[in-house]
Design brief:
Length: 475
């Protein structure tokens, strides 16, 4: 039998080192230019992948398998570090975080119980406490957990807010009894351009899409506060129960930031939980110059943070923070084989009771690595560069009669369109993709728009100038 796992055996240690070195060489040799994508047609790529036999009777060994991956897969992977990649909230990874990923995968600790990740558990607890302070929460009263991404963080907050409201109003324990008969009256309020995880989460929590009330936005794509209060007031008079509002701190398309303070006032009047979906914009907290854009985020009851967006850490790495740690109670359940009560009484921390997942990676290490290496100042410089690039691109497009750019960016997203029309803009994006340049596409008020999501600090003004010129040529 070939060597199977990393052990203390000198031969296994040597084999691990060889595999790491060979993999590094394969990655670095799999691309020869700065393009973001090979440009291969989807049908041609599908044909190549379908030709791969996944499970043969006899294995072909590591070297041959790596060579197969290099030739068939790696050359056609997206290169998120490319300055030509800017379609989504999908960032390049900071170099030091790749080191953290190696540690995470090699040790393969799990975050559900202390005896599956002793140091990992203690590090996550420490990172959560420091994040609570960073976002203006009391680290002794608050709590939180790492999750798989913004969707799961938002789902966690919605479950917590739903159960808290039902317990307060009806004295009903959802965890034990399921939803009460009144559940159909609950309403969640969020921007009409907020993330679709609000609907998906409402479905999964048994409340359904119809429980989500989409609020109109103003010219800056922020929740219209006057309309928000009017809609809540009308719903209450109709017998509905407002249980939660979500302020988006960086909408997916426009990077727009809702007014937290104004939404807090309305939430207080109607006893609503205020959640911030700050998956996109949360990194601004690290910039002394730009963090004012976030508003009074400390007024929230819970916050979603995605480190695999503007923090530039590898997927996946997200967290949800709560002002009151008691809000996490719906996720607590003891199992004899996992999080025994007597262990917790003796000081062992089992994180499985703080979220939806059981088995979970040690993603907090990536946050520790990059925060420690760069510090607030170094990270702040990255964030400021991203915002400055977006401002530059917007000004260039807005001043050019061949383009329309309807919304000035608050973060690092720029939505625009060439005046030649919908079909031309669709064709431009496809043509750029075939040339190894990847930009986004969305719709605003029924019009097809192109989008630059600028999450790469290596992008220069010259890169943006060249891209705009190329778009004009294609149009």
């Amino acid at each position: 039998m070939s060597r199977t796992t990393l052990t203390n055996n000198p031969e296994e240690r040597a084999e691990y080192g060889r595999i790491v070195d060979k993999t590094k060489e394969a990655i670095l040799s799999s691309f020869q230019d700065s393009s973001a994508f090979s440009g291969i047609d989807p049908l041609a790529l599908r044909k190549e992948i379908e030709e791969i036999s996944i499970l043969d009777e006899d294995g072909i060994g590591f070297d041959a398998t790596l060579e197969l991956a290099k030739e068939k897969i790696m050359k056609n992977l997206l290169r998120t570090w490319s300055t030509g990649y800017m379609p989504h909230l999908h960032s390049p990874a900071l170099i030091e975080s790749l080191s953290a990923e190696m540690i995470i995968s090699a040790f393969n600790d799990s975050m559900d119980s202390w005896d599956q990740g002793p140091a990992a558990t203690e590090v996550e607890v420490k990172v959560i406490k420091d994040l609570l302070k960073l976002f203006g929460f009391d680290s002794q009263k608050g709590d939180g957990a790492f999750t798989s991404g913004g969707s799961q963080s938002n789902l966690t907050a919605i479950v917590a807010a739903r159960d808290k409201c039902i317990s307060r109003l009806f004295g009903w324990d959802v965890k034990k009894k399921g939803l009460p008969s009144e559940f159909g009256r609950l309403r969640l309020y969020t921007s009409c351009i907020s993330h679709f995880s609000m609907e998906k989460s409402s479905h999964l929590t048994g409340l359904g899409y119809d429980s989500v009330r989409h609020l109109p936005v103003n010219s800056k794509c922020q929740v219209d506060i006057g309309e928000f209060e009017k809609i809540v007031r009308e719903d209450v008079s109709s017998g509905f129960i407002p249980y939660m509002a979500v302020a988006t701190i960086g909408t997916t398309d426009f990077g727009s930031i809702d007014n937290v303070e104004a939404m807090r006032e309305i939430c207080d009047r109607y006893s609503m939980h205020l959640h911030l979906d700050a998956a996109y914009g949360s990194a601004l907290v690290l910039s002394e110059r730009e963090k004012h854009r976030l508003g009074k985020i400390e007024l929230a009851d819970s916050i979603t943070i995605d480190f695999h967006k503007m923090f530039l850490l590898p997927i996946s790495c997200s967290a949800v923070l709560f002002k009151s740690g008691e809000d996490l109670e719906p996720f607590m359940l003891h199992a004899d084989y996992l999080n025994r009560e007597e262990d917790e009484e003796d000081g062992y921390i089992n994180l499985v009771g703080k979220g939806i997942q059981t088995t979970r990676r040690f993603d907090a290490l990536k946050v520790l690595f990059s925060f420690k290496m760069r510090g607030r100042k170094g990270y702040g410089e990255i964030v400021e560069k991203l915002l400055e690039n977006a401002e530059y691109a917007f000004k260039r497009l807005d001043a050019d009669k061949d383009f329309t750019a309807p919304v000035a960016p608050e973060l690092s997203s720029v939505v625009f369109a060439h005046v030649s029309g919908d079909e031309a803009n669709k064709r431009i994006r496809r043509k750029l993709l075939s040339e190894g340049i990847v930009i986004g596409q969305t719709v605003m008020n029924g019009t097809v728009m192109l989008k630059l999501t600028l999450l790469n600090p290596n992008i220069t003004h010259n890169d943006l100038d060249n891209l705009i010129s190329r778009i004009k040529e294609l149009a």
